[in-house]
Amino acid sequence: MGMGVGLPVGGGIGGLVLLLLFSALTGTNPLDLISSSSAPQDQTVGTTGLRDKDPQAEFISVVLADTEETWREIFRKRGEAYVPPVLVLFDGATQSACGVGRSEVGPFYCPTDRKVYLDLSFFRELDQRFGAPGDFAQAYVVAHEVGHHVQNMLGISEKVTAARSNADDRQANAWSMRLELQADCYAGVWGHYAAQRGLLEPGDAEEGLNAAAAIGDDRLQRMARGHVIPESFTHGSSADRVRWLRRGLDNGTIEACDTFSSRTN
Question: Considering the entire predicted model, what is its pTM?
Answer without folding.
Answer: 0.76
